[in-house]
Design brief:
Low-confidence stretches of chain B: none
Largest interface: A-B, 48 and 31 residues
Mean pLDDT of chain B: 82
Strand content of chain A: 5-15%
Helix content of chain B: 55-70%
Number of domains of chain B: 3
Strand order of the largest sheet of chain A: 3-5-4
Strand order of the largest sheet of chain B: 1-2
Order of helices and strands of chain B: HHHHEEHHHHHHHHHHEEEE
Largest sheet of chain A: 3 strands, antiparallel
Structural class of chain A: mainly alpha
Radius of gyration of chain A: 18 Å
Distance between the termini of chain B: 154 Å
CATH architecture of the largest domain in chain A: Orthogonal Bundle
Number of helices of chain B: 14
Oligomer: heterodimer
Order of helices and strands of chain A: HHHEEHHEHHHEEH
Radius of gyration of chain B: 56 Å
Distance between the termini of chain A: 53 Å
Shape of chain A: globular
Low-confidence stretches of chain A: none
Strand content of chain B: 5-15%
CATH class of the largest domain in chain A: Mainly Alpha
Chain lengths: ~170, ~400
C-alpha cells in the first residue's frame, strides 16, 4: 500500500491538534488527496477532516473546548483593544507582526481586566507567555523571534466564529 | 425686480457664509424654516431676507424656504459636497440617451437641423450623465472614508447597516450601470454610440452634422475613459474598502457580544491535541528501550489463575473455647483434624497448622506420655506423622 508524500507528517500534525496552513507543503498533499484523507481519518480515528482555503484541521467529539474558549477570549480582547487604540484590527492581525510587549500593554491596561484575571491562561505575563507557546504549537501564531510573532491564516477560524455570532443573532431576531 | 448679474454674484460672494449655512440646513432638514432663516440672519447681524428672495436664491414653500436648485447645485459643486444619489436616478439617462440615439439612427438622412439638435442634446445628456456618476463616486468615497475614520463615533451595528446599504443600494447597482460588458448598461450603450459616431464623423454628407459627430465622438472617448476610471475606483477601491468596514464591524460586534458572557457562549470546535505518536520520529528508540528491558530476563511462568476466595483468618479465641469444652483431649492432633472436618467442608493444611498452634499456648498442660508415640493423620493428599499429645488442663480450669 502506498501513501502520499509527507503522510507521516500530516497524520502527526493533525492528530496533535495543529492547523495545517496553505504555506506548508503538507497542505498541498492534503488538498490533492482530500477524499482519501477524509476517509482515512474517519475510518482510523472517527475524526472529521476539514479543509478550507486558509487551513486544514481535524474535528472530533473530544474537541478541546477550554483552549478554544481561551483563544476566542484572547483574540476578542486583542481585536477590541486594537480598535479602541484606533488601529485597523483586522489588517493588523492579518498582516502585521506583534511584539509580546505590545500584547502585555493591551492586556494590563484593558477594561476587561476582571475577565483577564479570572482566566488561568491569560491572567499574568507568565501565563500569557505559555499561552502564546501553545498557540505557536497549534499553528495559530508563528513566532518570528523570542518576543515577536505573527498570526497565521488559522486566525480566520476564530474570526469566522465571531462573524457567525452576529449572523445567528440576526437570524434569531428574525 | 431684475437684479444685475454682477450684483447677484457680488452678493453671493459677500454673504457666502450665510449661503453656506442655509445650504447645510437644507441638506440636513430638506427645508429652511422661517424661524431658522431669522435666526441665521440675526446671528450674522444682517437682514438679507429681501435680497435672498429678490435675487431668486430662495423660493418660498408654504411658510418655509428652499434654495433654488441652480444655486444649490452651484454651492454643492463649489464645496464638492455631493450626497450619494440612488442609481435609479442615474439609470433614467439610459432611457433618454437610448431614445435620442435611436432617433438619430432612424433619421440620419432626414432633416439636418433636427439631426444637429438631437446630436447636441445627446452630447448634453451624456455630459450630465457623466457628471452625475462622478459626483456619486466622489460622494461615496467621502462617505466611506468618513465611516472608516468613524469621526462621528457610530455604533458598530450602525456601521454594518450603513456599509451594507451602500454596497447593496449604491455601489453594486452603479457598477452595473458602468459595466461595459453588461449588454443593458449605459456604458455599453455609450460604446455603441461611439462606434456609430466614429463612422459618421467621416461619412456624413452635411458638414455641420459631421462636425457635431466629430465633437460627440471625442467627447465619448473621454467619457468612456473616465467611466472606466470611475468603475475601477468602485471595484478596486470603494467596494473592497466598504466590504472591509462591513466585515470588520461584523467581527468586532461578534467579539463584543462574546465578551459580554464568554463562558456561556458556545465556542468553535477545535481539535483536541492527542499525544498518540504512532508515527513519531522517536518511535523506534522508544520501542527499542522497552524491548531492551526484557533482553536478558529469565523466563517467567505464571500459574493458572485461581479464584480468589475470601482469606481465612484463624479465630484463636473460638478454637481455644472449643478445646476447653472438649477437655480432656486424648490425642491433640486427631482432635484438630476432627474439629476442622466438623467445621469446614474442605480442610486445607494451613488451617490444620493454624489450629495446631494451640498446643503452644502457655496456659495448656501437655502430656507426652511416658513413651513417645506417633500417629498418622491425613489432610487431603498429605499424610502427616504427628506425636501423640494429651491435653488435660487449660489455664486454671
Amino acid at each position: 500500500m502506498e501513501f502520499p508524500n509527507h503522510h507521516r507528517q500530516i497524520v502527526e500534525d493533525l492528530i496533535s491538534g495543529k492547523f495545517i496552513l496553505p504555506t506548508e507543503r503538507t497542505y498541498t498533499v492534503l488538498k490533492e488527496n482530500e477524499q482519501s484523507y477524509t476517509y482515512f481519518f474517519k475510518a482510523s480515528f472517527n475524526y472529521e477532516l476539514k479543509i478550507t482555503q486558509d487551513f486544514a484541521y481535524l474535528v472530533s467529539d473530544e474537541s478541546n473546548e477550554m483552549l478554544s474558549r481561551d483563544v476566542c477570549i484572547f483574540i476578542a480582547l486583542l481585536s477590541y483593544e486594537l480598535d479602541r487604540d484606533g488601529k485597523n484590527f483586522l489588517e493588523r492581525i492579518q498582516f502585521s507582526e506583534f511584539e509580546v510587549e505590545e500584547i502585555e500593554n493591551y492586556f494590563t491596561n484593558s477594561s476587561y481586566i476582571d475577565l483577564i484575571l479570572s482566566n488561568k491562561q491569560l491572567r499574568d505575563t507568565d501565563s500569557r507567555k505559555n499561552f502564546l507557546n501553545t498557540l505557536n504549537r497549534r499553528n495559530i501564531i508563528e513566532k518570528t523571534a523570542d518576543n515577536r510573532f505573527v498570526f497565521t491564516s488559522a486566525h480566520k477560524f476564530f474570526m469566522d466564529f465571531a462573524a457567525d455570532i452576529v449572523k445567528y443573532e440576526n437570524v434569531e431576531k428574525e | 425686480m431684475k437684479a444685475e448679474p454682477r450684483t447677484i454674484l457680488r452678493f453671493l460672494l459677500e454673504y457666502f457664509d450665510i449661503i453656506i449655512e442655509l445650504y447645510e440646513t437644507q441638506t440636513k432638514d430638506g427645508v429652511i424654516t422661517r424661524e431658522l432663516l431669522n435666526e441665521i440672519t440675526i446671528k450674522h447681524n444682517i437682514d438679507i431676507k429681501v435680497q435672498l428672495i429678490d435675487y431668486k436664491i430662495l423660493s418660498s414653500v408654504n411658510d418655509n424656504y428652499e434654495i433654488r436648485t441652480v444655486y444649490y447645485n452651484l454651492v454643492e459643486f463649489i464645496l464638492s459636497e455631493f450626497k450619494p444619489m440612488l442609481p435609479e436616478t442615474i439609470e433614467k439617462f439610459h432611457v433618454s440617451i437610448s431614445e435620442l440615439f435611436r432617433k438619430i439612427k432612424e433619421n440620419i438622412n432626414g432633416d439636418k437641423v433636427i439631426l444637429n439638435q438631437r446630436l447636441a442634446e445627446l452630447a448634453n445628456e451624456i455630459r450630465t450623465f457623466y457628471e452625475m456618476v462622478e459626483k456619486n463616486t466622489i460622494s461615496l468615497l467621502n462617505e466611506t472614508r468618513e465611516l472608516k475614520a468613524n469621526v462621528k463615533k457610530i455604533d458598530y451595528r450602525e456601521k454594518i447597516v450603513r456599509a451594507s446599504r451602500w454596497i447593496d443600494e449604491y455601489i453594486i447597482p452603479l457598477n452595473k450601470i458602468l459595466d461595459i460588458n453588461h449588454s443593458s448598461s449605459i456604458a455599453n450603450k455609450l460604446y455603441d454610440i461611439s462606434e456609430y459616431t466614429n463612422r459618421y464623423r467621416l461619412s456624413c454628407d452635411e458638414e455641420s452634422s459631421r462636425t457635431l459627430f466629430e465633437k460627440l465622438y471625442f467627447q465619448l472617448i473621454q467619457v468612456n475613459d473616465n467611466l472606466l476610471r470611475q468603475s475601477k475606483i468602485l471595484t478596486t477601491e470603494l467596494l473592497p474598502l466598504i466590504e472591509r468596514i462591513r466585515t470588520e464591524s461584523i467581527i468586532l460586534t461578534g467579539w463584543i457580544t462574546f465578551l459580554k458572557n464568554p463562558y456561556k457562549q458556545k465556542v468553535p470546535r477545535m481539535p483536541e491535541g492527542r499525544r498518540m505518536h504512532i508515527y513519531s520520529k522517536n518511535t523506534f528508540f522508544n520501542a527499542a528501550e522497552i524491548f531492551e528491558q526484557f533482553k536478558n530476563d529469565v523466563d517467567v511462568y505464571f500459574d493458572d489463575e485461581v479464584n480468589v476466595e475470601e482469606k481465612w483468618i484463624f479465630d484463636k479465641e473460638y478454637f481455644t473455647k472449643k478445646l476447653r469444652s472438649n477437655l480432656p483431649v486424648n490425642d491433640f492432633f486427631k482432635w484438630c483434624s476432627k474439629t476442622l472436618k466438623e467445621e469446614y467442608k474442605k480442610v486445607e493444611i494451613e488451617k490444620f497448622f493454624a489450629l495446631t498452634t494451640l498446643a503452644f499456648d502457655e496456659d495448656i498442660e501437655r502430656d507426652f506420655g511416658t513413651k513417645p508415640e506417633s500417629d498418622k493423620i491425613k489432610i487431603n493428599d498429605l499424610t502427616l506423622t504427628v506425636p501423640k499429645i494429651t491435653i488435660n488442663k487449660h489455664g486454671i480450669s
